[in-house]
From TrEMBL:
A Pfam family per the record: Hmw_CFAP97
Protein name: Uncharacterized protein
Entry-linked InterPro entries: CFAP97D1/2, Hmw/CFAP97
Top-level division of the source organism's lineage: Eukaryota
Family listed: Belongs to the CFAP97 family.
Biased composition (Basic and acidic residues): 182-199
Low complexity bias (residue ranges): 163-178
Taxonomic lineage: Eukaryota, Metazoa, Spiralia, Lophotrochozoa, Annelida
Chain spans, region Disordered: 160-207
Length: 207
């Protein structure tokens, strides 16, 4: 069997060379199988304390226990109230007491007195300017202005009122048609008598 073995390198004993080559090959295959990759492609390691938070679960259980205890106490109180028709004292006879009440009263009195004093001084103070003199001066100035003015005061308003009145009268006359007036018989007779005076009578025809 070893005689038919063809060695790559020249050798004087094919049997030993075959054994050596087989040993080298087996060691190589073993190293290949046991070789570790340079890049770690495995999934990251999972930690139990990150996914299962025991502290949070404990707090949640404590909160639920507290709620359950409060509900039970409230239910007992309600049942006791329903059985005994309720004996609740809703009266409150507590009087509000302030430690600095007297001080605040004194401060309020002081402010009130100061305000009254200021009001008295303002009311007793005489004015520096006399409005009656101002009004008399203004009337005098108005008279002077009327005397030296070429047109009367507020002439544009008067003209505007006149033009408005004339416009209204013209529009009313255009809008309403005129109707002939009916004269009485007495007025007609009076007009005829006036026209037929003795001077204007025609002479009687000659025979």
């Amino acid at each position: 069997m070893h005689r038919s073995y063809q060695s790559i390198l020249p050798t004087h004993n094919k049997l030993l060379q075959q054994r050596w080559d087989t040993t080298y090959y087996n060691e190589h295959r073993k190293k290949v199988q046991e070789a570790r990759p340079m890049v770690d492609t495995k999934a990251p390691q999972t930690y139990l304390h990150l996914h299962l938070k025991l502290k949070k679960l404990q707090l949640e259980e404590e909160r639920l226990a507290t709620i359950e205890r409060d509900n039970r106490i409230l239910l007992e109180k309600m049942s006791y109230t329903m059985r005994t028709r309720g004996r609740v004292d809703n009266r409150n006879n507590y009087k509000y007491k302030s430690l600095n009440r007297e001080k605040r009263i004194r401060e309020l009195l002081r402010v009130t007195q100061e305000n009254q004093e200021i009001l008295r001084r303002i009311s007793q103070r005489r004015p520096e300017y006399n409005h009656k003199i101002w009004e008399q001066d203004w009337k005098t100035n108005q008279e002077f202005m009327e005397n030296i003015a070429a047109y009367p005061q507020e002439w544009w308003k008067k003209d505007g009122m006149k033009s408005a009145r004339t416009a209204r009268s013209t529009t009313s006359s255009r809008a309403t048609p005129r109707t002939p007036r009916k004269t009485n018989d007495n007025s007609k007779k009076a007009e005829e008598e006036k026209t037929e005076t003795p001077d204007n009578k025609s002479p009687p025809p000659e025979e």
